[in-house]
């Protein structure tokens, strides 16, 4: 089982990295939306907690090494805690409302983590605060997609049988 868990975790790490670094949906005013956080939520659904946390953190940090290296250390910590929060709240049986609560809590943590990092190390408190509203579009979109994907997977017996629990 450990080999299977490692292999699936590596696949999720790659999915998170590729969908964060390379699959981008441009926004009209600022930046883009990536789908990496959607796969973080799916990793939390399919994998045991330690594997989901590792895949989420390392996949996101690797994407930042490619695109924005200055963020990589912060991303490693922020995304690990984000996955942990979602895993703890959504639990073993991720009902719709548990997923919603988990995604909201994980997204709030992520926004707060990047706000503090940007404030302390990059642009200062006021500039980071201005970006906060625009930065919230990303986790909102990925939370909606992640919740819908998990709820769809829960209704497909074949996919439920592939969960490593």
UniProtKB/TrEMBL annotation:
<feature type="transmembrane region" description="Helical">
    <location>
        <begin position="96"/>
        <end position="117"/>
    </location>
</feature>
<feature type="transmembrane region" description="Helical">
    <location>
        <begin position="137"/>
        <end position="156"/>
    </location>
</feature>
<dbReference type="GO" id="GO:0016020">
    <property type="term" value="C:membrane"/>
</dbReference>
<dbReference type="Pfam" id="PF07155">
    <property type="entry name" value="ECF-ribofla_trS"/>
</dbReference>
<protein>
    <recommendedName>
        <fullName>ECF transporter S component</fullName>
    </recommendedName>
</protein>
<keyword id="KW-1133">Transmembrane helix</keyword>
<keyword id="KW-0472">Membrane</keyword>
<keyword id="KW-0812">Transmembrane</keyword>
<dbReference type="InterPro" id="IPR009825">
    <property type="entry name" value="ECF_substrate-spec-like"/>
</dbReference>
<feature type="transmembrane region" description="Helical">
    <location>
        <begin position="66"/>
        <end position="89"/>
    </location>
</feature>
């Amino acid at each position: 089982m450990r080999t299977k868990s490692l292999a699936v975790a590596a696949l999720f790490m790659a999915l998170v990295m590729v969908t964060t670094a390379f699959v981008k949906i441009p926004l009209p005013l600022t930046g883009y939306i990536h789908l990496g956080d959607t796969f973080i939520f799916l990793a939390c659904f399919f994998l045991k907690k330690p594997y989901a946390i590792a895949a989420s953190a390392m996949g996101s940090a690797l994407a930042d090494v490619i695109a924005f290296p200055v963020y990589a250390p912060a991303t490693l910590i922020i995304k690990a805690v984000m996955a942990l929060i979602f895993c703890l709240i959504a639990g073993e049986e991720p009902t719709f409302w548990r997923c919603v609560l988990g995604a909201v809590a994980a997204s709030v943590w992520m926004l707060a983590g990047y706000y503090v990092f940007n404030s302390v190390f990059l642009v200062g408190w006021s500039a980071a605060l201005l970006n906060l509203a625009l930065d919230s579009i990303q986790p909102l979109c990925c939370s909606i997609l992640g919740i819908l994907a998990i709820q769809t997977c829960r209704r497909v017996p074949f996919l439920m049988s592939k969960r490593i629990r």
